[in-house]
Amino acid sequence: MNRVAIVTGAARGIGAATVDALVNEGFRVVAVDRCRDIADIPYALATPADLDAVVARHGDAVLGLVGDARSAADMELAVDTAVRHFGRLDAVVAAAGVVGGGVPLWEMTDAAFDAVMSVNLLGTRRLIDAAVPTLLANGGYGRIVAVASSAGQLGLRHLAAYSAAKHAVVGLIRGVAMDLAETNVTANAVSPGSTRTAMLDASAVLYGLPSAESFGEQQPMGRLLEPSEQAAMIAWLCSPHSSAITGANLAVDGGMTVN
């Protein structure tokens, strides 16, 4: 059976790698990305060209869709598109995320705080809200995966809003997992450590570091992680092999949160 997934934040980074991994596992994918900047996020977000490049790698197996994860209408459109174009929906991956801060919380503007919280947390909720009725209608299969962060277990200096948002994503997934516990739909989170992405480059700027490579030194493995390493876990959680796991927060962080 060719299963079908929706991935938000799909134009680059972990989201794009997840599209690749899911296609390699036989999924067809609706790849969703905002494809434009957010005024209060201090770095450039993915572009339409980035999304087109992801789609071009996979031909008919991937359909690109420009949409904002924070929009209920856009997420409902993503679900409708999956069902209309591919005939079904089996899994959703909330990978859309942004980082912001670089200052103590009390110096962060309300607009910047709201942007960080809304993309990371509300965007996850909107995808779940839109997808669950269709996943439940499958009767025997459904997977929800959210990309959280090692920041969802730690307090990171000058990233209080981001840490709060990712803590909340983990809590949201745990609650949703219990809401769905008697169904065949599971809900889990993956918490990456420092992974080689544009978001990590932006974090390096916030901390005044010469490059993102400096973050690799903070992980016991002594290196940055690759988006493909995160995507491998996400794809596995979308597969039938993860059927006994729900409400979990799985660290793919090079040992960052071990101690």
Short synopsis of the structure:
By secondary structure, this protein is α/β, with parallel strands linked by helices. The chain has helices spanning 13-24, 48-56, 72-86, 110-137, 160-179, 198-206, 227-237, and strands at 4-8, 28-33, 62-66, 91-94, 142-147, 185-192, 249-252.
- Share of β-strand residues: 5-15%
Shape: globular
How do the SSEs run, as a string of H and E? EHEHEHEHEHEHHE
Query: What is the arithmetic mean of pLDDT?
Result: 93
Class by helix and strand content?
A: alpha/beta
Low-confidence parts, pLDDT < 50 over ≥5 residues?
none
**Biggest sheet architecture:** 7 strands, parallel
What is the oligomer described by this structure? single chain
Strand and helix map with partners:
Elements: E1 4-8, H1 13-24, E2 28-33, H2 48-56, E3 62-66, H3 72-86, E4 91-94, H4 110-137, E5 142-147, H5 160-179, E6 185-192, H6 198-206, H7 227-237, E7 249-252
Parallel strand pairs: 1-2, 1-4, 2-3, 4-5, 5-6, 6-7
Helix pairs in contact: 1-7, 3-4, 4-5
